[in-house]
Amino acid sequence: MRISVIGCGYLGAVHAACMAKLGHDVVGIDIDDGKISELAASRAPFFEPGLKELLGEVQETGRLSFTTDMAAAAGSTVHFICVGTPQKKGENGADLTFVDSAVNALLPYLSANDLVVGKSTVPVGTAARLATTVQQSAPAAYLLWNPEFLREGHAVSDTLHPDRLVYGVTDGSEDHPAVQVLDQVYATSLQGGTPRLVTDLPTAELVKTAANSFLATKISFINAMAELCDAAGADVTLLADAIGMDDRIGRKFLNAGIGFGGGCLPKDIRAFMARAGELGADQALTFLREVDAINMRRRTRVVELARELCGGSLLGQRITVMGAAFKPESDDVRDSPALSIAAQLQLQGAVVTVTDPKALANAARRFPELHYEESTDAALQGADALLLLTEWREYRDLDPHETLKQVSGARILDGRNVLDIDKWRAAGWIYRGLGRP
Ligand code: UGA
């Protein structure tokens, strides 16, 4: 099948490569020249495990190309809209500029029976509005919403082996003619047993924002428990293990720490609240304000704990922050709690060095005033305190005895609760976790 993928960021670049891997002829289109020339040369413009190899593999087959020219979408049967929907500046709502302009730019190239398939996360109601736009310009084409659930760091496998596929179609019916076409696109996954649900447009849009809101709520719930554990002298990691053994609760996404960040959960819960307000249903989502507040409080809490760890003052303390990405296996620093904590510490007088295996270039663009060090060894040298803020494998595997030889002060704050307390304390470290005694 011929497919165009419009928007080649974290979502679209992976989607384009995976669709080609599944055997389709794919063109990836983006307005960003730099991104397109990198992708065309089989280089991933961001770090995502497996993407570089996949790009090389599929480009050799001749089934994947990249361009900035929207005219290349002509002749494709399915057009995936994969552009970003960032938070509006100074407001909670989502900025739909990129979605609107992608769809408008595509309109002249649509033919009868083409599918325009939205994958971007959008406020409920957007798809119906875009369906009207498509209908007016290309009456025989179809607009669908097919939300994407991939996680950064696992994007390739999540796209090739999704948990579920959701197709939102205008009449919500299995018999909608576009359903069969999308089934052909995803034939490999469907044959592999991936469940597929057909819904109406608003339900499909809501599935995505509801899923991300649930995940954010789960993280803030356990972080609220961490606050209580701190107050009561209990251990939130054991509490999470114990409640997680109840199937109805489950252990995943119950890791207390510095909270969630990234380009999705924070802006999605805010956009969801803003949209609920527009729909007159704001009361339904006021709890998300609390979810957001608990999450932001984590960052302040870590700064306070770091101050305590440094004996009451941050002034002149050499602090090494391990991790800048919002999560491991990613170079994404959008709304990264690790970086925002590093910046706060620096503002309050600490001398901060940030290290990360992949995200330093992006971090330096966002916070040029921080000091960055690529080598973990060099970053550890002479530190008065260490903060583990993104749980990359190499930080989890640090040997407390070896690390002790490199630093000036044996103090560590484990912002992700991933280190073995007993091992670090036995090696002579002052260890602080979040919600751990
Ligand atoms: C999230 C969703 O998990 C995906 O399903 C969704 O497709 C994606 O957003 C999106 O909307 O595009 P992602 O932002 O890649 O994916 O990252 P997550 O794995 O969800 O992690 C989000 C944040 O929560 C990270 O900062 C992570 O460190 C934090 N987290 C996660 C915790 O603090 N504790 C946990 O137990 C789990």
The molecules bound to the chains, other than polymers, are: uridine-5'-diphosphate-glucuronic acid
Q: Any idea what the CATH architecture of the largest domain is?
A: 3-Layer(aba) Sandwich
CATH H-level homologous superfamily name of the largest domain = NAD(P)-binding Rossmann-like Domain
Helicity level: 40-55%
Q: What does the average pLDDT come to?
A: 97
What is the overall number of helices?
18
* Low-confidence blocks of residues: none
CATH class of the largest domain: Alpha Beta
Q: Pairing-aware structural class of the strands and helices? A: alpha/beta
Task: Tag the structure with descriptive keywords.
Rossmann fold, 6-stranded parallel β-sheet, 2 domains, alpha/beta, 14 strands, 437 residues, binds uridine-5'-diphosphate-glucuronic acid
Please explain how this structure is put together.
With 437 residues, this protein is an alpha/beta fold. It has two domains: 2-194, Rossmann fold, CATH 3.40.50.720; 199-437, NAD(P)-binding Rossmann-like Domain (Rossmann fold, 3-Layer(aba) Sandwich). It has helices at residues 12-21, 33-40, 51-60, 97-106, 126-137, 155-160, 177-185, 187-191, 201-232, 236-244, 265-278, 286-309, 337-347, 360-366, 376-380, 393-396, 400-406, 421-426, and strands at residues 2-6, 25-29, 64-67, 78-81, 115-118, 142-145, 165-169, 196-200, 318-322, 351-355, 371-372, 385-388, 411-414, 430-432. Strands 3-2-1-4-5-6 form a six-stranded parallel β-sheet, sandwiched between helices. It has a six-stranded parallel β-sheet with strand order 11-10-9-12-13-14. A two-stranded parallel sheet has the order 7-8. Strand 1, helix 1 (12-21) and strand 2 form a beta-alpha-beta unit. The protein is globular, with a radius of gyration of 23 Å. The protein starts with a strand and ends in a 5-residue tail after the last strand.
